[in-house]
Amino acid sequence: MDLEALEEIRRLKYRYFRTLDLKLWDEYADTFTVDAVGHYGTKVYGDMEPLRGRDVIVDFMREKLSGGIITMHVAQHPEIDVDGDTAEASWGFEDTVIAPDFRVLIRGAGYYHDRYRRDTDGVWRIAETSYDRIYESMQSLDDTPSHQLIANRWAAPAQAE
């Protein structure tokens, strides 16, 4: 068993989520192979054709998660199988999306299914990623009168009066 590869792949998936949530687009891009394929359909986006290529995936996420949209992803329960310079894995995940401009809170969970490749520079990257949702829920923040977003990394700074 290649324990070093297992740890590198774990760190890769964690970095994928961290850089996505923090909108660190250059670092996020580096989690993918140049020819990566992403399957990101949801109830909100509907059934989508696969996104082909690292730049296409990053541009899609940059567009969909722009402005004040807040995301938080948590990955757990990795099952990783390494075969030389390729690997496959399943990850349980939970995600939260808060879209203040749309007054919506979305929560969900499911399982990611990833394929990885160790590139010629020796770095593991995601070659293909997809997920199966267990659930996705959406709630209007207007239905929760007591809801207050008291911290938002993406909000414009308050103006002094």
Automatic annotation (TrEMBL):
SUPFAM superfamilies: NTF2-like. InterPro entries: NTF2-like_dom_sf, SnoaL-like. It holds the Pfam family SnoaL_4. Residues 2-128 form the SnoaL-like domain. Gene3D superfamilies: 3.10.450.50. This is Nuclear transport factor 2 family protein. The lineage of its organism: Bacteria, Bacillati, Actinomycetota, Actinomycetes, Propionibacteriales.
